[in-house]
Specification:
Elements (H helix, E strand, L loop, with lengths): L1 H9 L2 H18 L1 H4 L1 H8 L3 H29 L1 H22 L3 H15 L2 H9 L7 H9 L3 H17 L1 H11 L1 H10 L12 H4 L6 H32 L3 H29 L1 H21 L4 H29 L4 H30 L3 H28 L12
Helix pairs in contact: 2-7, 2-8, 2-9, 2-10, 2-12, 5-6, 5-7, 5-14, 5-18, 6-7, 6-8, 6-11, 6-12, 8-9, 8-18, 9-15, 9-17, 10-11, 10-15, 14-15, 14-17, 14-18, 14-19, 15-16, 15-17, 16-17, 16-19, 18-19
Length: 405
């Protein structure tokens, strides 16, 4: 406890808490269509491919909106950028409540849900901005644990949809986003770790570097896997095992909760053991557990255990990768994080679509799981090559922060 108190005293704890709450609410709204997918699919009589498309669009849209929000945050401040975004989320939810009456409207709603998915890079930079380098991994892990919002959505949205209708859940979300807005206004303050006079080229430097693309591809496995699977699982449990719509949400909640909590552990472990070492371990576990998920489709208990292991590794990997980001880009963390989050989350958008296509054309989801496992293996090989240069230039052995002389 004394160590944690020292950590909190090293930065601005109220901003850390406000950033976590903002990110958690945003994550929950971002995946709300996934949480309600069994209800929506039944309402519009969707095919597996249509369902996959419906689930993929919010992830892709959110990914593409992250970098612009990160740039906006560099010029108007991260706190102000979060408030602008939350107003946009509230308006999007009102559209969903009043205007979604067809499959095309549903796809448009998916694009609007992407506004909530844009929060990632700004939330992490805002929450960790006042903390010194030795605590960046833990601070980012704590804010990133706002992924727990996906678990809350999976738990609450299905019973609300069952009781009041799935469109009404959008209305509840429009009201709910007002609470993190109030918390942000009252408790958060803008950190001082911003390069005030940097040029646009310097802000977006990670776009032109191999390291930025390497980080993004690894993040496509860790966070892309987390958000893609969390969005897909309610439909998977409902279709594959015949559980009720509410039970499918509860099972998804357990997996998403595991991934959110281990993100904190991944950040903490990376501060002490190194982000590169942690990423190496989690990529091995992700690859193995994904294959097991695909092979255990006849047994719900074994499938659930496999998903819990997989989500634990995905969450730890998210924390590990973002322990490394502020070490590599110390003065433009918000933009670097948004760019990495944007490209990385695009990987998550491919998961529901590929799963739907796999089921529709092969009669099984195994091909989707195997493809994702292969991509994780490729990222592991790439990491082992890249880490040689990283530990010679901007990180200590294993990926720990360098200690100033």
């Amino acid at each position: 406890m004394a160590g944690f108190r020292s950590f909190l005293q090293a930065g601005h704890a109220p901003t850390l808490g406000a950033a976590f709450f903002y990110f958690a609410c945003s994550c929950g709204i971002w995946v709300i269509n996934g949480a309600m997918a069994p209800f929506i699919s039944e309402s519009f009589n969707l095919t597996p491919a249509q369902k996959g498309l419906m689930l993929s669009i919010p992830i892709v849209a959110g990914s593409l909106m992250r970098f612009p929000l990160g740039l906006l945050a560099q010029y108007i401040g991260r706190k102000n950028a979060t408030l602008v975004e939350m107003v946009g989320i509230a308006l999007a939810m009102l559209y969903g409540y009043f205007a979604v009456d067809s499959f095309n409207d549903l796809l448009a709603m998916g694009v609007l849900l992407g506004i909530a998915g844009a929060s990632f890079g700004v939330a992490l930079s805002l929450g960790s901005g006042s903390f010194p380098p030795r605590y960046k991994g833990l601070a980012m892990g704590l804010v990133g644990a706002g992924n727990i919002g996906t678990a809350v959505a999976a738990l609450l949205a299905p019973p609300l949809a069952q009781a009041y209708g799935w469109q009404t859940v959008y209305g509840f979300a429009a009201l709910g986003i007002l609470l993190p807005m109030a918390v942000m206004i009252v408790f958060a303050r803008e950190p001082e770790d911003r390069a005030e006079h940097a040029t646009m080229r310097e802000h977006a430097a990670c776009l032109f570097e191999k390291d930025g693309w390497a980080f993004s591809l690894i993040y496509a496995v860790t966070f892309g896997g987390f958000i893609g699977l969390a969005t897909f699982l309610p439909s998977y449990f409902y279709d594959q095992f015949g559980v009720s719509k509410v039970e499918a949400g509860q099972l998804t909640m357990l997996a998403a909760f595991m991934g959110a909590m281990t993100r904190i552990f991944g950040g903490w472990l990376s501060d002490h053991w190194g982000g590169i070492n942690t990423l190496t371990a989690v990529l091995v576990v992700i690859c193995a557990s994904l294959l097991l998920c695909g092979l255990s489709s006849a047994s719900l208990p074994l499938t659930m255990l496999s998903f819990l292991v997989c989500f634990a590794a995905l969450g730890a990997g998210n924390g590990a990768l973002f322990q490394l980001v502020p070490l590599r880009w110390p003065t433009t963390t918000a933009v670097a994080g948004s760019m990495i989050g944007e490209i990385g989350a695009l990987g998550g958008g491919l998961i529901p679509a590929s799963m739907g296509l796999s089921q529709q054309y092969t009669g099984s989801y195994f091909s989707g799981f195997a493809l994702f496992a292969f991509f994780a293996l490729v990222m592991l090989v790439m990491l082992r090559f890249m880490q040689i240069r990283w530990t010679r230039t901007w990180a200590e052995k294993g990926g720990r922060a360098r200690v100033a002389a």
